[in-house]
Design a protein that fits this description.
The chain is an alpha/beta fold. The protein has a single domain, classed as 3-Layer(aba) Sandwich (Uracil-DNA Glycosylase, subunit E). The protein has seven helices and seven strands; from the N terminus they run αβββαααββαβαβα. The strands form two sheets. The protein has a five-stranded mixed sheet with strand order 1-4-2-6-7. It is globular.
Length: about 220
């Protein structure tokens, strides 16, 4: 079951039982209290695009209706894949680059600086084979993802949201269709592993990420 504060998000909608009652492992993650209570910075939320399965994995996730609405007799996410789906990105190499930029901006050598933010993936259904979710996205994915994030933002109230995915950012801003979150700055950078805009060869996203942190995160 979902953590209490997320248990009602999306309830009686497409996902009748509530989005995070169905997918508790996909809840946003905060580690400790540093996101909420730190005199050095505001509240930062970092959002990736989606999880993914390799091409050889078979399962309910290939059928959007079954993934969100279907009855199931076995876990939607196989036990051996649960660690890959958790939103704790502390052991995820591409996010080490985000962490390094956070350390630079916060002027700290503290390797666990990832504890200073909250992490989440926008789309709740996994992509396949490491490809962008753009290749798989259906309208039901858009509706559930938008509903879920709007519910989360009402609860965690970040000062700045940075998408590490231009596609997820575009889909969310189309979903809200207005400046609903006037108190939250919503921005994007390209994912550190984007094959066309890798941070090593095209540092614009790295510089943008650090600029946004300096302007909206650090006090």
């Amino acid at each position: 079951m979902a953590t209490d504060k997320y248990s009602n998000i999306g309830k009686d909608g497409i996902v009748k039982e509530g989005i995070f009652n169905r997918f508790p492992i996909l809840e946003p993650v905060t580690i400790g209290d540093n996101y909420w209570n730190n005199p050095r910075h505001n509240k930062l939320m970092i959002i990736g695009e989606s999880n993914y399965f390799s091409d050889d994995v078979d399962g309910v996730f290939k059928d959007p209706e079954a993934w969100y609405r279907g009855e199931f007799t076995k876990p939607l996410i196989p036990k051996e894949k649960e660690n890959d789906f958790k939103n704790d990105k502390s052991g995820y190499p591409p996010f080490d680059r985000l962490r390094d930029s956070m350390k630079i901006v916060l002027k700290t050598e503290f390797d666990a600086v990832y504890q200073e933010a909250i992490y989440y993936n926008y789309f709740l259904r996994p992509a396949i084979g490491g490809k962008t979710f753009r290749n798989f996205c259906k309208q039901i994915d858009r509706e559930v993802a938008g509903t879920a994030l709007c519910g989360i933002l009402e609860i965690v109230k970040p000062d700045i949201v940075i998408f590490a995915s231009k596609y997820a950012y575009d889909e969310f801003t189309k979903y809200i269709k207005s400046s609903k979150y006037n108190d939250t700055r919503i921005e994007f950078v390209y994912h550190p592993s984007n094959r066309w805009r890798r941070w090593e060869s095209n540092p614009n996203s790295k510089h943008k990420f650090e600029r946004l942190l300096k302007e909206y995160w650090v006090k």
